[in-house]
Design a protein that fits this description.
Blueprint: H1 4-16, H2 19-25, H3 30-44, E1 49-52, E2 55-58, H4 60-87, E3 92-98, H5 107-117, E4 121-127, H6 130-138, E5 144-147, E6 159-174, E7 196-198, H7 205-217, E8 224-227, H8 231-239, E9 245-248, E10 259-262, E11 270-278, H9 284-295
Parallel strand pairs: 3-4, 3-5, 7-8
Antiparallel strand pairs: 1-2, 5-11, 6-9, 6-10, 6-11
Length: 300
C-alpha cells in the first residue's frame, strides 16, 4: 500500500531533481530517501526516474504521477480540518420535513440561520403532513420533522419530541363577510351559515378536533364545505369565497387578496407545533439543527 510519506519523498526528489538536495529539504539522510523511492517504484511496478551519470530526470510514469501525488498530499493535509468540521456538524446532509403551517412561523428564520452558520451542509426539505412525517422518521427517510402533535404512543421509544410553537386559532374569512366590518374579535356565532374549510381528520385528527371543538363550544355544528391538506390551499379557497377557516395565528403571514384574518372572541385552544427526531440518530448535523431551533423557540 502506498503511503503519503512515500509520495512526499517522491515530490521532493522530483522538484529538486537531486536526491541529496531533496534529503536536505526533508531533513533526512540520503540512503533512506533512495530506499523509499525504490520501494515506491517496486509497488507501482515502474521506474519513476531515469537515472543517468549526469543526474536524474522524471520518466513518463513519474511525470504522470507528480500532479496526482501533489493533489493527494494536499488532500491529506486537509483531512484533519475535514473530519473536525464533520464532528461539529459543519459538513454532511440533513433531511427536514415540515407541516405547511411551519412555513409561516419558525421555519424560514431557522433555515436562514442554519444556512448562514453551516453553508456546507446539504439540506433536503419536504412539506408533508404529520402522519407522513412519522412514517418517514420510522423508516429513516428523514432526519427531523416539524409536526403537529400528538405523537402516538407506539413512537414513544423511537422518537424525541420538543415543543416549538404554541399559538391560538384565528379566523380566516372572505373579505366581503359582513361581520368583518370592524377590526374587533369575531365570534363564530356571527359566522353561522358559512361553510368551513378544514384539514381532513384522517391526517390531522388533533387539529381537526380542535377546530370542530371551537364550534361545539358555542353550540354550533360546523358545515364542512371543503377539505384540503395544504394551508395555502385552504387560504386559497377562502380567497375564492368558498367558506371560512380556523388557522394558527402565524398563518396570517400568508397574504392573499380577498382574505381577512381576525382574532376569535370565543375561547380557543392553543395549537402546538414541535420538532421530532429519532433517539438513535446521533448525527452532529442533526444536533446542530436541533440546538439552533431551540435558540429560536417561540413558546415558553
Amino acid at each position: 500500500m502506498i503511503e503519503i510519506r512515500q509520495l512526499r519523498y517522491f515530490v521532493a526528489v522530483a522538484e529538486e531533481m537531486h536526491v541529496g538536495r531533496a534529503a536536505q529539504r526533508l531533513h533526512m539522510t540520503q540512503p533512506p530517501l533512495s530506499q523509499s523511492i525504490q520501494g515506491l517504484e517496486a509497488l507501482l511496478g515502474v521506474d519513476l526516474f531515469i537515472r543517468q551519470k549526469r543526474g536524474i530526470t522524471l520518466s513518463a510514469a513519474g511525470l504522470a504521477l507528480l500532479p496526482e501525488a501533489r493533489r493527494l498530499i494536499k488532500d491529506s493535509l486537509a483531512l484533519p480540518e475535514l473530519v473536525q468540521s464533520a464532528a461539529k456538524g459543519e459538513l454532511g446532509q440533513l433531511s427536514v420535513a415540515f407541516v405547511s403551517t411551519a412555513d409561516y412561523n419558525l421555519l424560514p428564520s431557522v433555515l436562514r440561520d442554519f444556512r448562514k452558520r453551516y453553508p456546507q451542509v446539504q439540506l433536503s426539505l419536504r412539506e408533508s403532513t404529520s402522519d407522513v412525517q412519522l412514517e418517514a422518521l420510522r423508516t429513516g427517510q428523514i432526519d427531523v420533522g416539524l409536526m403537529i402533535p400528538p405523537i402516538p404512543e407506539k413512537f414513544n421509544d423511537l422518537l424525541h419530541y420538543q415543543t416549538v410553537i404554541s399559538e391560538p386559532l384565528i379566523l380566516a374569512a372572505p373579505a366581503d363577510l359582513p361581520v368583518l366590518g370592524s377590526k374587533k374579535p369575531v365570534s363564530l356565532l356571527d359566522c353561522q351559515g358559512q361553510p368551513l374549510i378544514i384539514f381532513p381528520r384522517a391526517i390531522a385528527p388533533a387539529f381537526y378536533d380542535s377546530i370542530v371543538g371551537c364550534f361545539q363550544q358555542v353550540g354550533l355544528t360546523p358545515d364542512i364545505g371543503q377539505e384540503a391538506i395544504q394551508m395555502q390551499t385552504i387560504i386559497g379557497l377562502v380567497s375564492a369565497g368558498m367558506g371560512i377557516a380556523l388557522v394558527p395565528q402565524s398563518v396570517s403571514n400568508l397574504n392573499r387578496p380577498g382574505v381577512i384574518y381576525r382574532e376569535l372572541a370565543d375561547a380557543t385552544p392553543q395549537i402546538e407545533t414541535g420538532l421530532a427526531w429519532r433517539k438513535d440518530n446521533h448525527s452532529p448535523v442533526l444536533n446542530a439543527f436541533i440546538e439552533l431551533v431551540r435558540k429560536n423557540i417561540l413558546c415558553p
